[in-house]
């Protein structure tokens, strides 16, 4: 097995030619064996081979969490490849994405509809490229029977939100099936990142998902640092981690408030809205932007925070932390609130593991996956206590996970701000090394973020692949709604709080 899979560390760049290139049958057998044995598919993507027109180099990135290593293997395919989706459900979206981006048809896939309405990566970026279906012009799963009906929601929603279509198959209020169709607002980010790096590379990474600007900027920066063989200085690395945890705090606290609002519990909804702003304002104190944009760059951070300001910020955040506890006590102490959350939107541990769910959605179902623990980088310690876990897998568990993680993040941010090491916050990165491949994982607030980058012979991006946590978790939301009342969908949806933009890229 060792010579057929290249094991690397998180952010460790290797010679691209060192990644084993296997025959398709052997590639798929190793992939299926690894996934059924407990590995996770962090990325599964392709790029055209210039030297072999019509051929696609497919690369799989397998996360071996217990060992803290990433397994790399590849194969070359033409117009088709047998599907592994039924045996390995965590690959079902990756296979559909590969078909849409590069035309590799997954033979035998149970539902091979497009993931996005996008032009192929190996074709000109034309809005009406041949073979590209108009947005929304795809088949949907249907059920037939007396008194069964469909409820269609979106893609245009009543609010400031990206488009996404939800198709419910119902009997009265009872939901038999939900199908989610996204990709209406495809932005072509991977195509825009092609041929970099450039002045806008970091800015583009921040726009993968606007509420995860720090997480994606950090994943991108660490990928480029690996390709340039440098590391951020300790002070810069610590400030990046502070920003990442502040982003987690802002979103977890905001989600608790949104869940409270969905069940009409106004005290916590009001309090958490204001407290989320406290954490966003703390991010603005680091860099001048409430979403952390412009802070993280290859080599470190763009702005320093003086020690005195860091201590004052830590003191202020201590007060915010206490208020979050008060708001959460009201929420979790209300029997009527818990009655609305418990045993609603359940995703079992088995389903969460087979689908490859990540982040709080996975941990709420008892799947202990957390990049900060399994694939750590400075300043996260090599060994941490196990991440918070639950086995209930319901809305209540996903809410409780957010509170537990907010507590941990708040304590960590306070300790880091009071102990910033001296020294610079940034080093100038040299040019990227040619013909290298790196995989950078970061635990964003939604879960694992993956940036996989390959350079060409000139040290430019030959392929830049992005996988947001939402890409892994949308199917989890579909399962959570099965068997529920349609009126519980807003609660299930908010308990996942997935990103349209992170999926549509």
Core attributes:
single chain; 505 residues; alpha+beta; five-stranded mixed β-sheet; four-stranded antiparallel β-sheet; 16 helices; 40% helix; globular
Overall average pLDDT: 92
* Distance linking N and C termini: 34 Å
**What is the strand tally?**
16
Strand-pairing-aware structural class: alpha+beta
**How would a crystallographer describe the biggest sheet?**
5 strands, mixed
Q: Estimate the helix proportion, in percent.
A: 25-40%
| Total number of helices | 16
Coarse morphology: globular
Q: Beta-strand level of the residues, as a percent range?
A: 15-25%
Q: Give the oligomeric state.
A: single chain
Uncertain runs: none
Q: Radius of gyration, rounded?
A: 22 Å
Question: What can you tell me about this protein's structure?
Answer:
- This protein is an alpha+beta fold and 505 residues long.
- It contains 16 helices and 16 strands.
- It has helices at residues 24-36, 92-102, 189-193, 201-206, 213-228, 234-262, 266-287, 307-332, 335-341, 349-355, 359-363, 371-374, 395-417, 469-481, 489-496, 500-504; strands at 6-8, 14-15, 21-22, 40-48, 56-64, 69-77, 80-82, 105-107, 148-153, 165-171, 174-181, 296-297, 300-301, 436-443, 448-455, 461-467.
- The strands form five sheets. Strands 1, 3, 4, 5 and 6 form a five-stranded mixed sheet that branches. Strands 2-14-15-16 form a four-stranded antiparallel sheet. A three-stranded antiparallel sheet has the order 9-10-11.
- The longest helix is centred in the middle third of the chain and has 29 residues, at 234-262.
- The radius of gyration is 22 Å and the shape is globular.
- It starts with 5 loop residues before the first strand and ends with a helix.
- The model has no long low-confidence stretch (mean pLDDT 92).
